[in-house]
Design goal:
heterodimer, A: Rossmann fold, Rossmann fold, 2 domains, six-stranded mixed beta sheet, 16 helices, B: mainly alpha, ABC transporter involved in vitamin B12 uptake, BtuC, two-stranded antiparallel ribbon, two-stranded antiparallel sheet, 14 helices, cell inner membrane (chain B), transmembrane (chain B), membrane (chain B), transport (chain B)
Chain lengths: 511, 343
């Protein structure tokens, strides 16, 4: 443990107006180490990362990078060897891999000088060799999977720093949030390799199993302070969560309600779409059904087929026994189908609107009176709805952007739960949400099931599915290849992972 | 490196419970208040300053003249907000106005009964709205480009209809429709004020008003929440076209003539008023009263400058600079608010 410090943060503080985002935070990351930065949404992790990259100017404190002080505010962090890879990776889909790779290295040339494509290619071939990844440099980025894009972003950052020095600090901000387990594993392997090459790596993630697997040390933040620094080998997952929450949490997931058969609420028969093909399954009132598969295997498309947003090419489905031919989401909603979309910012919320405007959108019509919307009644409803799912602060008049990710997701849940949907579709319901909020959200979904809804959870998080589902359906190239049922140990994280990775022929139609 | 591993225990007190039954207390915020009313306050200060400096401002007739002269722009600015709220543009409204005026005037001149001519004019507005809706909503063309196209095509059409000449001799009925006075104020100004009230009601007090904002804010989320997004967008383009052709009928009465080349003059002023208006009252949202306040602020400012001896070109400079200042202020206010929240 005599490696030099890649990063030393000392007594960093930042407040916005009256609210404190960082309070006396200190942190060290060694070269060659993967360092986990953990904490609930809103604990100050992002502010810390933004301070390092110059997006945020800290009020006090100092930062050393490889032993040399970093001037605040940071200008051009990449010249100091700092690269941040965000969840939102920032690639242009319609351009090729090579064009995307070169952008932050200015294509190795001046503004109006010609780009030496052959030399560019040689540089990246060599770089990928070192990292142990392979890309077709002429492929369009739109053809790559989410995991490949994440790997690409790492490679891109490597090039930039490669030319300057070997003193490198990578900050990966929830890079695996949108990836399935095997894809995430590829990225984690790459991350490890980058660290082994001598760089310091900060890994921000809500997925603690990954942290336990791949990180050397962890810093846990809570309410703007660094509450603990610990070597991963000296701690446990439960202990990390306890530090994040400030209290013990022994169960990360709620228990699904007892289910002993119920009316069939959703029956899918031979449904096909762009990726999904000939999918059949049922979900009953009171039941929690999981749908999983590797990324791109169809579980992203299925919720949109079921909520009327996308047209099926063949087959169909029925809701409560009557055949559903929804041309629009509004028809599906009228039939009792509610979708909590996986991409909240794109499909779920109006981020500049107030919490009240977001949460009451589906029912606003019922608050209309002769002289317009009844404002006080609407405000009261919004406050109740947000209280039911324990949004903090319970301020319907705040813009949605003022809430943390977990609270935004709670607001989206509240928006749909008020309709008492017969079929509740949850697409990656806890993606990017801290464990405390995740458990509360899933608890709300379990309550909906207990009240008679059929809950369908689409997710790549096998641990979660194994914990909360009565049954899980596994998709492979759009087809159902396995169905695992709870009880007698048949539904475990491990079994789900195996089912996902196995080719259809290898699965003995497990039921 | 001290590795503290002391773990909080289960006996920790539970997190504070929020009293969810109590309605949230509305906190009065000076910053928010200032932001909402800065434009209106600026208008008041400007008017008072003008009254003190210029003797002309002490007559009621100057005010009615200013207000009346801007009624067409106010009507167009309000119409512009219909589509702007949805996150799109309808640049074609000014030229729809001129083309409608040209058709109605030409038909009346050819001896067609006025009601029929008016119907033909309104039909033009609906058709323009339908075409814009087809391109933007159905096919998905960028609204700025699509309506710039219809603007240009309509301007050519206006020349065709009028044979590239100014049509004068508009019948008295049209002139009375726009200019006859009620309580000393011409009808066209009343129309604009009625439209203000109607749009205020729809925007502020109805679910439809919220749907339009939501569509402008996040179209996907609105559709997935069951809002009939495409129907509302298409409907809005038709309403926009219809309103523009109604303004066209006011337009020929107001001027008593149709000049086919006048559309360009009316293209950008309404948008300046609408964008400036979005920085007031309902901050960050296109709204009716904000548009009114913005337009009157611009008008008083320009009038004052002209009384100081400025030439007519000053109005365009003033509009342009005011618009740049307004959107800059809105942008800075927005980023300040966004930055105020730790994530």
């Amino acid at each position: 443990m005599s490696a030099p410090f890649a990063l030393e943060v000392r007594n960093l503080a930042k407040s916005y107006g009256g609210s404190v985002a960082l309070e006396d935070v200190s942190l060290t990351v060694r070269a060659g180490e993967v360092h986990a930065l953990l904490g609930q949404n809103g604990c100050g992790k992002s502010t810390l990362v933004k301070s390092l990259t110059g997006v945020v100017v800290p009020d006090s404190g100092s930062v050393d990078v490889f032993g040399e002080p970093l001037a605040m505010p940071t200008i051009d962090p990449h010249t100091r060897g700092i690269a941040v890879i965000h969840q939102d990776i920032g690639l242009v889909e319609s351009m090729t891999v090579l064009e995307n790779l070169g952008i932050n290295a200015r294509y190795g040339t001046r503004l109006l000088a010609p780009v030496n494509v052959r030399r560019e290619k040689a540089i990246y071939e060599e770089l990928m060799e070192r990292l142990g990844v392979r890309f077709d440099l002429d492929a369009e980025v739109s053809t790559l999977s989410p995991a490949e894009r994440a790997l690409l972003a790492v490679a891109r950052a490597m090039r930039l720093m490669d030319t300057e020095s070997d003193k490198q600090l990578f900050i990966l901000d929830e890079p695996t949030a949108a990836l399935s387990k095997p894809e995430a594993d590829r990225l984690l392997v790459l991350m490890r390799r980058v660290a082994d090459l001598g760089a310091g790596v900060i890994f921000v993630s809500h997925r603690l199993s990954e942290v336990m697997d791949v990180c050397d040390r962890a810093t846990v933040m809570r309410a703007g302070r660094d509450v603990v620094h610990v070597a991963i080998s000296d701690t446990s997952r439960a202990e990390l969560v306890a530090h994040m929450l400030g209290r013990r949490m022994d169960d990360f997931f709620p228990v699904p309600p007892a289910f002993a058969g119920g009316p069939t609420r959703l029956s899918v028969e031979g449904l096909s779409g762009d990726r999904v093909s000939n999918v059949s399954f049922t979900a009953h009132g009171g039941e929690v059904v999981g749908v999983t598969g590797l990324a791109g295997m169809g579980q992203e498309e299925l919720p949109f087929l079921l909520c009327g947003e996308q047209k099926a090419t063949a087959g169909g489905y029925s809701i409560d026994g009557s055949r559903a031919e929804f041309s629009t989401p509004s028809a599906a909603i009228a039939a009792g189908v509610a979708l909590v979309p996986g991409n909240r910012l794109r499909d779920g919320v109006w981020i500049a609107g107030t919490a009240e405007e977001n949460v009451t959108l589906p029912v606003i019509g019922s608050f209309s009176a002769l002289f317009g919307i009844r404002g006080p009644a609407l405000r009261k409803r919004a406050t109740e709805l947000m209280g039911n799912v324990q949004v903090t602060p319970n301020r319907p008049d705040y813009a949605l952007a003022a809430f943390s990710g977990g609270n935004q997701q709670k607001i989206v849940f509240a928006k749909w739960l008020q309709l008492n949907p017969g079929v509740l579709l949850l697409d990656e319901p806890t993606q990017g949400v801290d464990p405390g909020a995740a458990k509360a959200l899933l608890g709300d979904a379990m309550d909906a099931a207990a009240a008679g809804s059929a809950v369908v959870v689409f997710s790549g998080d096998h641990e979660q599915l194994a914990a909360i589902c009565h049954r899980v359906i596994v998709l492979h190239h759009g087809e159902v290849i396995a169905e695992l049922t709870r009880g007698s140990g048949g539904l475990t994280e491990h079994a789900l992972l195996e089912a996902c990775e196995a080719a259809p022929s290898e699965i003995s139609a497990a039921a | 490196m001290s590795a503290s591993t002391a773990t909080p225990t289960a006996t920790n007190p539970p997190p504070l419970k929020h009293d969810f039954t109590a309605p949230p207390k509305s906190q009065f915020s000076w910053a928010g208040f200032t932001e909402r009313w800065a434009l209106v306050g600026g208008l008041a200060v400007l008017v008072i300053a003008c009254i003190i400096i210029f003797p002309q401002f002490r007559t009621a007739s100057l005010f009615t003249t200013m207000v009346n002269a801007q009624s067409l722009v106010l009507l167009l600015g309000l119409t512009a907000t219909v589509i702007l709220r949805l996150g799109d543009f309808d640049l074609s409204i000014a030229q729809t106005m001129v083309a409608t005026g040209a058709i109605v005037a030409q038909l009346v001149k050819l001896g067609v009964p006025a009601p029929l001519a008016i119907l033909a004019g309104l039909a033009l507005g609906v058709i323009v709205g339908l075409i814009n809706a087809l391109l933007v909503v159905r096919i998905g063309v960028d609204s700025f480009v699509a309506t710039l196209g219809s603007f240009t095509a309509l301007s050519g059409l206006s020349y065709l209809i009028t044979n590239s000449r100014i049509i004068s001799g508009i019948p008295d009925g049209f002139v009375d429709f726009a200019r006859s006075q009620l309580l000393g104020i011409p009808l066209i100004t009343w129309y604009a004020w009625i439209l203000v009230i109607v749009l205020w009601y729809v925007y502020q007090r109805t679910p439809l008003g919220r749907y339009t904002l939501f569509i402008g804010g996040n179209r996907n989320a609105a559709r997935l929440s069951g809002v009939p997004v495409n129907r509302i967008r298409a409907g809005a383009y038709i309403v926009s076209g219809l309103l523009a052709s109604f303004i066209g009928i006011c337009f020929i009465g107001y001027f008593g003539a149709v000049d086919p080349s006048v559309g360009g003059q009316y293209m950008l002023q309404p948008f300046a008023a609408a964008f400036l208006g979005a920085t007031a009252i309902s901050v960050g949202r296109f709204n009716a009263f904000g548009t009114v306040a913005a337009l009157y602020l611009l008008t008083v400012g320009i009038t004052a400058l002209q009384l100081l001896g400025a030439q007519t070109w000053v109005s365009n400079v003033f509009y342009g600079v005011a618009l740049m200042v307004a959107v800059t202020a809105a942008k800075i206010a927005g980023s300040r608010r966004g930055g105020g929240q730790a994530k």
